Amino acid sequence: MDYSKTAAGVLQGVGGEENVRSLVHCATRLRFVLKDESRADSAAVKAVPGVVTVAQAGGQYQVVIGNDVPDVYAEIGKMTKLGAGGDDNADDAPKGNLFNRFISMISAIFTPLLWALAGTGLLKAFLAAAVTFGWIGTDNSTYAVLNALSDGLINFLPMALAFTAARHFKANEFTAFAIAAALLYPTITPLVGVEGLTFFGIPFTMVTYVSSVIPIIVIVWLQSHAEKFLYAKLPGAVRRFVTPMIVVLLAVPIVFVVIGPISAILSGALGNGIGWVFENAPWAGGAIMGGFWQVFVIFGLHWGLVPLFTLEYQTTGQILLIGPVFAAVLAQAAAVAGVWVRARNKNLKSLAAPATLSGFLAGITEPAIYGINLPLKRPFAFGIVGGVIGGAIIAMGGVFSTAFVVPSGLALPALFGNGNMVMLIIGLAAAIVIPFLLTAIVGFTEPEEDAAPAAAPAASGNDVVVLSPVDGTVVPLSETPDAAFAEGSLGDGVAIKPRSGAVYAPFDAVVAAAFPTGHAIGLRHADGAEVLIHIGIDTVKLAGAHFDVKVTTGQEVKAGDLLVEFDGDAIERAGYDLTTPVIVTNGELYPGLASRASGPIGHGEPLFTAVSVESTLTA
Length: 619
Description:
Layout: H1 3-13, E1 20-25, E2 29-34, H2 42-47, E3 53-57, E4 60-64, H3 69-79, H4 98-110, H5 114-132, H6 141-155, H7 157-169, H8 173-183, E5 198-199, E6 202-203, H9 214-233, H10 239-280, H11 282-298, H12 306-316, H13 322-342, H14 346-362, H15 366-376, H16 378-396, H17 421-442, H18 451-454, E7 464-467, E8 472-476, H19 483-486, E9 492-498, E10 502-504, E11 509-514, E12 520-525, E13 530-534, E14 547-549, E15 556-557, E16 562-566, H20 568-573, E17 580-584, E18 592-594, E19 599-601, E20 606-611, H21 613-618
Antiparallel strand pairs: 1-2, 2-4, 3-4, 5-6, 7-20, 8-9, 8-19, 9-17, 10-16, 11-12, 11-15, 12-13, 13-17, 14-16, 18-20
C-alpha cells in the first residue's frame, strides 16, 4: 500500500478536509465525523487502494483500512490539520440520537489509548502465564518491575483518560490531569473504606479510583463547561491561573462527594449483573458475546463495549466478558481459513491467506469479514455458529482475563490459569474447527475467476461496437477544447456534448479504472478493446464534487449499466466544459475506427466500431 496515495484518496472521497469535523483511528478504522455525510462518495472511497470497506454507524463515517490504519492516519496528518481531538468546531456538529453520540464519545476518548492498553495488557498476560507455569516467581525484583510496567497504565487509567476526554470536550488537558492526579494521590487511596470522612462538614465515602472510567469522564465534561463560563466572566489579567484553581477546587470534591460514590454503585451493579449472568446462565452470556461480537464489528460499534471491560475489571479485578470474544474472533479467522483451503479462485485465495493470518495472530478480522466472509455469506454465518458454541463453552468454564487485551491467538496467555482450562481448550477448539469444517466441506458460492479478463489482452481479430455512453451530440474529437484529446495523443475516438447527467456502459466489460474523482471511467472489453470515457475537461480538479460513481475497479458490467451520475449544471457553473471524449486507448491492438456517429445520439445507440489490428491486416 502507498500510504500517501491511500490517505489522499480517502480524504478526497469524504469531501476534503473542509468537510471533516474530527478524525481519530482505532485498531483498523479511520473514524471521521463529517460536517455533511451527503458530500462523501462511498463508492470512490471503497475504490481507493488499501480501503477494505466503508461503514456509517455510531454517528461516524468509518473507513476500514486494516492493520495499516495508523500509517494512513499519519499521512492524513501530514497533509492536513486533522488529528487527535479534531478541529475547534466540534461543538457545532449535528447532534444525533443519544446512542450515536455515546458511541462517538467513547470512540474519541478510548481509541487513542487502545494500542497502549492492548500492548501492556499483552505483557501482563505473558507475565501471568509465566507465573502460572512456574517460570518466574512473584517474590523478586524482576517480577516487581515487569508487573509495574505491564500494570501501570490500567491502574492509572484515569490520568490517560483525562487527556483524551479533555481533547474531546475541549477542556484544558493539564487541568484535567491535575484532577485525575488528585483522585489517585498516595494519601487519598488509603482512605478507601474509612468511615467518618467529611469535607468541610459534608460526609462522604471514599471509593477507589484505580482503573476507573466514569468519574473522570463525567468531571472533565463538567470542567469544559466551567472553563467556558469562567473564561467569559473573569478579567483577562487573572483568568489563566484563577480558572484552573477554581475548577480543581470544585471538581475534586464533587467527585469525592457525589460522582465517585454514584459511579461506584453503578459500576458495582454492572459488575454484579455480569457476574450473575455468567454464574447462573454462563452459556447464555458466552453465546451472546461469542455470536454478536462480529455483528458489532460490522457496524463499528465493538469498541463501544470497551468501557464495560474496564468497569468489570475495576469492580472485580477480572474480565469475564472477554473470554467468549476470543471464540468470536478465532471463529471468523477459521472460516476464512476454510475459504483459503476450498477456493479455486486465485484472487479469493490470495485475499484469504493474509486475512487468515491477521485474524488468528492479531485478532484483526475486518479484512476477513468485509473482504471474504460477509460477501460469501455462508462463511460469516458459519463463523457466528462457531462463536456461539465456543463462547458458550468458554463461559461455562468460568474463564476470565486479568488484563485488557485485544482477543487474538497471541493474547491467549491472558486466559491461562483463569478458570477451567479444559473447557477453554474445548471452547477454542469448537470455535475453530466447526466454522473451518463447515466452510471447507459445505462450501459457498464461489465468484467466477476474474483474473483472466484483467490480464493484458491479445488481439483477437474481433471488431468491437462501442455504444454511446451518454445522451447528447457527437462532435469530432478535434473539437475537444483540450490539446491532448484533440490531437489524438491519448487515443482515437469521438467527443460528446452531454444533455443529461448519466454515463452508461457502452458494451459488456470489466471496469479497468474507476477514478475516485468520478470524472473518468476506463473499460476493458472481453476481446481486448480498452475505452476511456472522460466526463468534461479538467474536471479532475473538482476532486469528486458533483460526481457519483456507481461502480468499482474490477467490477463486471453489462452494456447499458449505469456507471456514473453527474450534475452537469453544477459542473458548468463551476467553469468547466462538459465535452466528453470517448476514446480507444490501446490503439496498437485497435488502430482503426469505423462507422463514427455524428449529431444527436442517445445512450445505447452505436457510436463507432473499434477495428482490430487483425482485421486491418486481413483487409
